[in-house]
Amino acid sequence: QFLMANKLDTAMWITRLFTVYCSALFVLPLLGLHEAASFYQRALLANALTSALRLHQRLPHFQLSRAFLAQALLEDSCHYLLYSLIFVNSYPVTMSIFPVLLFSLLHAATYTKKVLDARSSNSLPFLRNLLEKLNANQQNILKFIACNEIFLMPATVFMLFSGQGSLLQPFIYYRFLTLRYSSRRNPYCRTLFTELRIVVEQLITKPSCPVFVRRLCLSGISFISRLAPTVA
């Protein structure tokens, strides 16, 4: 009754569980490397479907207008719909599957707990303990996801020069990264950029750091700061 009363949430729960399943079989290629590549695409397509359903839930009345597009781009679900489309037809990159896997796992865990609560307050205690441990590490997981989002930017450039990526991919991914940086719901991308900058600045101010390395890092920090979007 609980699942039928919340059909859209249940549909997203199923697609997220399927995303976790496909992502796990890509990361751990138990069925062979050839099959792993197909699970990579399935995971991203399932994530795209989940993101589309979530975006429909957030913005139920579609309008073909600039105002609606601007509002949609503020939603995290729109960001990860774009993310899935960027990588679904590209060369499989393990780093790109982790944000999809971990976000799906976190959201599926949250809804699984609701399903267990609807069934009985004491049902499946072992599973409840696993969900509680996952929830306790949520902040660390979100930071890890943000770290993946950031370091995928140079990875797309490397893929371009190695012949495994397209010319447009780094530019489209840069747009995705600016959306994540400006996210209203998830500040972890901005937080990680700040923390990485502080760590680099601390390292290059040490006397043992060569001058050319210091200048190179300062130039890089200045360049990335100019590319960063303004956040309201």
From TrEMBL:
GO biological process, alphabetically ordered: endoplasmic reticulum tubular network organization; membrane organization
Membrane spanning stretches: 12-33, 80-106, 150-174
Compartments where found: Membrane
Signal peptide positions (record): none
InterPro entries in the cross-refs: PER33/POM33_regulator, TMEM33/Pom33
A Pfam family the protein falls into: TMEM33_Pom33
Amino-acid biosynthesis is among the record's keywords: no
Membrane protein topology class: Multi-pass membrane protein
Keyword vocabulary terms for this entry: Membrane, Transmembrane, Transmembrane helix
One annotated Gene Ontology cellular component of this protein: membrane
Methyltransferase recorded as keyword: no
Family listed: Belongs to the PER33/POM33 family.
Official protein name in the record: TMM33 protein
Organism, as annotated: Donacobius atricapilla
High-level lineage: Eukaryota, Metazoa, Chordata, Craniata, Vertebrata
Gene name of the encoded protein: Tmem33
